[in-house]
Amino acid sequence: MSDINPLAGLAGKDIVLDQIVPARMPWGGIVPKGKTLRIIDLEGSQAVDFLCYNAADTAERYNAPNTIKAAGTLLLTAGHKLYSDRGQALFSIVADTFGGHDTIGGCCSAPSNRMLYGVEDSPGCRENFLSALEVHGLGWRDVVPNVNFFMSVPVGAAGEAAIAAGSSRAGEYVDLRAEMDVLVAISNCPQVNNPCNNYNPTPVRLIVW
Fold first, then answer.
1. pTM above the 0.70 mark?
2. Sign of the CA dihedral running 122, 126, 129, 133
């Protein structure tokens, strides 16, 4: 049993959102500037695919290369920022119990599941992103390489890389402080063809204060 308290530090906070995202499902919404979003891996070993955009101008969105170069690492944790393609901070990671969130694995999708695993009719995180973003007028071209919270893609000395088995513990969380009004799209990853979720997608919890 995990000794992590996923509600640590929340006493007395002005909670504006507290929502369970079921296994395999999308979520989308705006996190106002100065508010903090906590993503909680309720049962452990659950990858959470994450995209974000300037809510006032969604042409500006998360940029993996800028984020990686500013962090000096492929693995994000507290103290790092998620940067846009215009070099502005969208979120700051202000607390993190997991450490080492993936920036290179991207999102799964029905086409990639067919390509990699030979399975048909297996929608993934891209389809979840599209569902979350459609109400904001965004579509296929707006889904860019994303952050994968609670997921690991180890890279070897020769450049080899592969998605590792989910290793987060029940209750692990990451806190993201919005540096502007940010549109967020989340896919609570439905993948069962690789071990990112230990082949068992589970719910996550979102809290904003």
1. yes
2. negative
Residue 195 belongs to some domain of the structure:
yes
What is the rounded CA–CA span in Å between residue 111 and residue 122? 8
Which tens digit of pLDDT belongs to each residue from 81-104? 999 999 999 999 999 999 999 999
The answer to whether 50 and 38 are in contact (CB under 8 A) is no
Structurally, the chain folds into a number of domains equal to: 1
For residue 185, tell me if it sits in a domain.
yes
Q: Please, where are the H alpha helices in 25-165? A: 64-71, 110-117, 125-134
The verdict on residue 162 lying in a domain is no
In angstroms, the Cα distances linking 10 to 14, 21, 92, 168, 184 are: 9, 19, 18, 21, 21
